[in-house]
Design brief:
Structural class: alpha+beta
Distance between the termini: 140 Å
Strand order of the largest sheet: 1-2-3-4-5
Shape: elongated
Radius of gyration: 33 Å
Helix content: 25-40%
Length: 233
Amino acid sequence: MYKNFTQPSSRHTQQGMTLIGLMLSLVLTLASALVGINLHINNQRTVDSIRNATAHNLTLMTSLVVIQKKIQAAGFGIVGANENDVTTVFIPSTPDTPASRAIFWRFIEGGATKCYGIREIGITPNGQSFRQLDTITSVSDCNTTGALESLAWDGPSKRLGRWGIDSLLSIYLATNGTLFNFQLSKADCSISRLTTSNEHSKVTVTVPNTAGLNGHAIPSNIIEICLTNVHPN
């Protein structure tokens, strides 16, 4: 008698990815790649934004230091120096010319009258708009009697800073005209705490930092300079 033995089946179940599965995997891979690219772009934008803000503020602070040092010479050596020896000028913008702002002063050094100024103008080199701050001098007609704003400011100039005009600065300029602001007033002040305060002319320089331009409740950079050689009438 023979026994019937049933042979086990050798059939194996084959597994694999369908076309739909492949497409889904491809979509997920592309989505992950796009997320990674966007994160990289956003991180780069953040780095660039921080770098630009740092450069903006550093140039502002450096310019303010130079301004404070130079303007304090106003009226030095001039007997009875008064408001005629330091003045501010603002020229509004026109359809063809950006607004400009300046402060001019004079003093006597080594027996010679010297006329200096700091002026902010708008420039567009290579089609890109900037605000530029320069120190300027008047050589040909500098004297102790002429109106400072009427002198020929034809001497050597030196750039203190240049700031690219982005959307935030553009909004600020639409209201204020220039990045820097110079104001003259009378005040009881002295150049140090060791000297007696008397009435002098005072220059207040105001300029917004990047936080201010972004609308944050942070005060602008403000410096007040006592012109101890200038006695207002």
